[in-house]
Amino acid sequence: MAPLFRNKLYGENDIPLTCIDQIYGVNEEKKKLILGGQVKSKYPSKIIIYCKDLRVFQFCLTYAKEEEAKKIFQGIVHHSLEPKSLKCLFAFSYFEKAGPIPVTHRKQKTIMFESKEDWAMEMRRTKGHCTLVTANENYNISEKLPQFFFVPSAVSEEDINSFHGKGLPVWCWSHHSGCALFKASSLTVVLEDSVSQPYMERMLTAVAQTYLFSVKTEDLSSTLPTVQDIQQAYNKFKQYFLIDNATEFWISDVKWFSSLENSGWFDIIRQCLMKAVEIVECLEKENTNVLMMGKY
Predict the structure, then answer these.
(1) Contact 12, 66 (CB under 8 A)
(2) Which residues pair with 291 in a beta bridge?
(3) What is the dihedral angle through the alpha carbons of 222, 223, 225, 228, rounded to the nearest 10 degrees?
(4) 275 CB burial (10 A radius; 0-12, 13-18, 19+)
(5) Fewer C-beta within 10 Å: the chain N or C terminus?
């Protein structure tokens, strides 16, 4: 039988620093969350490491020499909980040493959308008709937008440079019928209606002109949970998987399914999937352009 865990860089019990979510120290059966920058000369008798992939590791320091235990504990906390240079990350040094892959061994390239060619290739693949924007190559328009992106052909250069990219309909995907999916960041509330309203009307018109002069807007900020709600629900959800002893396991097992349901995580997934289906039906059945609005 093939092993369940297969990775060419690290083993089943190896923990990359970027995979560490939380570290707890245990002293006299009391568990305390360890925060970066607050580690002193003391060290716990046991370390519990919660990983972002929901693995849990425990390391006992009781039988280690005092100096060695301090070095182990402080080293783990220092390198995992405090900001570090990218060069210190696991396997980062392989990036330059590996070199280019020979053409004979190269598999089909994965499009990373980091160049004009990548975007143009995707536009040709979906048979869309939009204009490539290169003005943000050095992030002059907005740091939140990619260096290259497509907008409806009717969007003027003046509009592209307005409002630091907010409200600008960025192309996501084109349906084979001709309609397309766009996304845009909502304009700041403090802007006067006399300025923002004509601008947004021009953007909606530009999206509509992409196909059959039709467009439907979806304000995701008002129909889907906020980022804070999603983060809070996920934190509750993942706690039911980060169990480090038998007592906690049996306590949680009694009400396992109801606890997962009460976390709210499944409901958020349901809402997102329902909204995705709704948008797909607009593109597929109604042949309507869709503009998704939200806070990006």
Answers:
(1) no
(2) 182, 217
(3) -20
(4) middle
(5) N
For 148-187, write each residue's pLDDT tens digit: 999 999 999 999 988 888 899 999 999 999 999 999 998 7
Residue partners of 114: CB distance under 8 A and separation at least 6: 147
If you average pLDDT over residues 205-230, what whole number do you get? Answer: 92
- Residue whose C-alpha is closest to residue 164's, from 276, 296, 26: 296
Torsion from C-alpha of 186, 192, 197, 202, nearest 10 degrees? -80
Q: For 11-41, write each residue's pLDDT tens digit.
A: 888 888 888 999 999 998 888 998 877 666 6
What pLDDT was estimated at residue 149?
Answer: 95
Distance CA 93, CA 83 (A): 18
Provide the 3-class DSSP secondary structure of residue 56: strand
CA–CA dist 93, 240 (Å, integer): 36
What pTM was estimated for this model as a whole? 0.77
What mean pLDDT, rounded, does the chain reach?
86
d(CA 4, CA 44): 33
d(CA 152, CA 52): 39
CA distance 119 to 39: 47
CA distance 37 to 51: 20
pLDDT value of position 220: 93
- Distance CA(221)–CA(71), nearest Å, equals 47
Helix (H, G, I), strand (E, B) or coil at 53: coil
Alpha-carbon distances, residue 79 vs 12, 64, 72 (angstroms)? 20, 20, 11
Q: Please name which of 211, 199, 210, 215 lies closest in space to residue 154, comparing C-alpha atoms.
A: 210
